[in-house]
Specification:
Blueprint lengths: L2 E5 L2 E3 L5 E8 L8 E6 L6 E6 L8 E3 L7 E6 L4 E6 L8 E6 L13 E5 L2
Parallel strand pairs: 2-10
Antiparallel strand pairs: 1-3, 3-8, 4-5, 4-9, 5-6, 7-8, 9-10
Length: 119
């Protein structure tokens, strides 16, 4: 069974850091581009990060809203993609999802993990 599971969300103060995980089962994560999305309350889902498959050298892409603060990387041995988030802002609050594509048309999505940035 193909499954993605995000974890690592929580409550953090502005300026703080979090590391989210996207763990895969039932398939090899390295063979897919993995997209990261988030949805803030009362807002549309936003795609903000992408890490390409290992065949594409695992290149990373970020939206301007997170570039320089967020970093994506893979651990192939753990079949996991990580999202390192630093200098978090209240506007980063939302439910964070990973998916097996960098577009909204991904076929597999995780269940999401809540990130709340608040003092």
């Amino acid at each position: 069974q193909v499954q993605l599971v995000e974890s690592g969300g929580g409550l953090v103060q502005p300026g703080g850091s979090l590391r989210l995980s996207c763990a895969a089962s039932g398939f090899t994560l390295d063979t897919y581009d993995i997209g990261w999305f988030r949805q803030a309350p009362r807002k549309e889902r936003e795609g903000f990060g992408c890490i390409s498959s290992s065949r594409s050298d695992g290149r990373t892409y970020y939206s301007s809203s997170v570039r320089g603060r967020f970093t994506l990387f893979r651990d192939s041995a753990k079949n996991t993609v990580y999202l390192e988030m630093e200098s978090l802002k209240p506007e980063d609050t939302g439910v964070y999802y990973c998916a097996t594509d960098c577009s909204d048309y991904a076929t597999h999505w995780g269940q999401g993990t809540q990130v709340t940035v608040s003092s």
